[in-house]
Amino acid sequence: MPSPIAETLAIVLLVATLGCAIVRPRGLPEAVVAVPSAGLLLVLGVLPLGQAGTEAAGLGPTVGFLAAVLALANLCDRYGLFEAAGSWMAAGSRGRPVSLLALVFAAASVVTAVLSLDATVVLLTPVVFATVARLRLRAKPHVYACTHLANTASLLLPVSNLTNLLAFGASGLSFARFGATMALPWLVGISVEWLVLRRFFAGDLVGRGTTREIRPLPVPAFAATVVGFTLVGFFVTSAFNVSPAFAALAGALVLAVPAVASRKTSAKDVALSIDLPFLAFVLALGLIVKAISLHGLGSLVAHIVPGGTGLGSLLLIALVAAVLANVINNLPAALLLLPAVSGYGAGPVLAVLIGVNTGPNLTYVGSLATLLWRRVLIRRGEELPISEFLRLGALTVPPVLVAATVALWVSLRVVG
Amino acid sequence: MSPMNIVIWVVEGTWEGCVDAALERLPAESHFTLLHVTPSDVTEAADAATAGLFGRGFPGRKPSQRYDDIADDEASELLAAAAERVGHPDVELISRHGRTEREVVRAVAEDVDVLVVARDGDHSRLGPKSLGHATRFVVDHAPCAVLLVWPDETPGIESLPPPKHGHPPGHGSPKLGHHSKHDPPPHDR
Predict the structure, then answer these.
(1) Which residues pair with B95 in a beta bridge?
(2) Which of A51, A160, A251, B92 is the most buried (most CB within 10 A)?
(3) Model confidence pLDDT, tens digit, residues B22-35
(4) Fold observed for domain B5-152
(5) With a CB-CB cutoff of 8 Å, which residues 47-76 of chain A face chain B?
(6) Does the beta carbon of A275 lie under 8 angstroms from any beta carbon of chain B?
(7) Contacts of A377 in chain B (CB under 8 A)
């Protein structure tokens, strides 16, 4: 098949795959279009079997790691860790909205870093929402803090974001070195978010919450300890050249066995939390992006993206990554960009992550997908989300992007 | 004379002061309506973030449904607490969802004499920005009289920010492009 036709076909299939993943017609899993699309590309020879094999072999461990982290986060929720965190935030804030926001920042940053942004979005945010409601304060600043930090605070560790897991292999870094290099960009990014949100929502951080019915819940000590050991396990396994996925798997098993035995949760719930259709979707997406990459876009990207580790190069890489994440989506953006920069060492790879992780605060799902998602909202008869969240994105993303990239540049010089 | 129709806009963080100010300043024999709006953009932001994950992880959980349930419970409890504070037999409660500022304006479109609105933000000084985005829109567009109250202590006049360009209060606004050498220094706070 001629390259332009092959390229066009692959791009059409990518758009269809992303569209289906957002709209989820009839609630079908996101893999329903992704897997046949990848299959079609293989059958038509757009993606040679050998290339597909290499790509799949590279993605396999990443997908396994993701499965274990998702299971671990879900189990933490079943043990009541997030509910307890909500009660501590409420009690610790004494009803003061600014103190509560600070505690939400701390919780969202730590949860995102250790248990991934998925945990913050799906498990922590509803708890924060309920906590704010119980205090009778305005929810907006606190909910936006969660959704923003799920992206910005996902810079720290390989487990914090699926894009990081994809980059982790390409970066050639150990778990510890990844964390050490990204610690400063992570802190700087969170600080910029704090400064902007604190000011943007000054009008809503008002009054004093009712704390009469608030009692801090007991710490789910077992779950908290296991998560702590799992975190240590990430560093230790990596130091011995063993995949940190095994630490996540061990943590999930140690939590799952007593939880199922004591009927805190069911084996079915644990199995469901691994989300096999999504894992298939990631694999298929990887193959589709590989096909796009092979037929011209890959060399174009490699041409555009600089390979240096100077400040200018890093800023340009982060910018390209952020733009691409907003045009298509951060997942395919990472899949497309990482191979182009992986030959240049850790700096450019981590700059890509800054772009694809913090960029989505502008449009969340990427603008293509946002368009579709907005159509879904219109069809449901809901009013469109207003300019406020776009405005907040426009105020936070550029300074976070620049400040975090400068911090990365400093970090690369200090940590090495 | 028929009783006045008064709508009190109940918002988290300022509702207590707003109710108190309405009772203090408006005739007790009025018909009071307490209005609360759950802003839809908060749940939408949370939904958008979930959509950003491609709906991955934790199947079977629908955060948006959970948000709506929590918000509804909270709204009815808040309105009940506000009604108790009004302590009046003739109180109507309205709970709405949507874009806050537009829902408030729609709610007072007919047969309302006064809408009571609290200022937002930092109450330790007179402005600036004592009106948040939604409040500013409501004050701007309300098709009825608006009673705008400080939800707690009213700040003293000494907290008035100094005028720009060093002009003291009472001198009017400076002419564009004109700066006098004789302008006094900025007002001390």
Answers:
(1) B36
(2) A160
(3) 999 999 889 999 99
(4) Rossmann fold (3.40.50)
(5) 70, 73-74
(6) yes
(7) 44
Which residues are CB-contacts of A38 (< 8 A; sequence separation ≥ 6)?
Answer: A47, A52, A283, A284, A285, A287, A288
Nearest CA in chain B to A365: B52
pLDDT tens track for A197-233: 999 998 899 888 887 777 888 989 999 999 999 999 9
A350: which 2 tokens?
């981590």
Residue spans of the domains in chain A: they are 1-46+281-293
What is the phi-psi region of residue A149: left when phi exceeds 0, alpha when psi lies from -120 to 50, beta otherwise?
alpha
B59 CB-contact burial (10 Å; exposed 0-12 / middle 13-18 / buried 19+)? middle
Q: Please, are residues A281 and A21 in contact by the beta-carbon 8 Å criterion?
A: yes
Question: Tens digit of pLDDT for each residue in B119-145?
Answer: 998 778 887 778 888 899 999 999 999
For position B180, what pLDDT does the model report? 42
Q: List where CATH 3.40.50.620 sits in chain B.
A: 5-152
Whether the CB of B58 is below 8 Å from some CB of chain A: the reply is yes
Q: Could you write out the DSSP letters of every residue in B62-107?
A: -HHHHHHHHHHHHHHHHHHHHHHHHT-SSEEEEEEEE-HHHHHHHH
The helix-helix angle for A140-152 and B40-52 (nearest 10°) equals 10
Tens of pLDDT, residue by residue over A37-96, are 999 999 998 899 998 998 888 888 888 888 899 899 999 999 999 999 999 999 999 999
Name, in order, each residue with C-beta under 8 angstroms of B98's C-beta and a sequence gap of 6 or more: A383, B37, B38, B39, B40
Task: Calculate the average pLDDT of chain B.
Answer: 81
Residue A206 has its nearest CB partner, among B13, B42, B56, at: B13
ipTM of the complex: 0.81
What residues pair up with B98 in beta bridges, in sequence order? B39
What is the spatial distance between Cα A254 and Cα A245, in angstroms, rounded to a whole number? 14
Q: Is B153 on the interface with A (CB under 8 A)?
A: no
Residue corresponding to tokens 């300890």:
A225
Output the pTM of the full model. Answer: 0.88
- Decide if B45 and A144 are in contact by the 8 Å CB cutoff: yes
β-pairing, B114-118 vs B145-149, is parallel
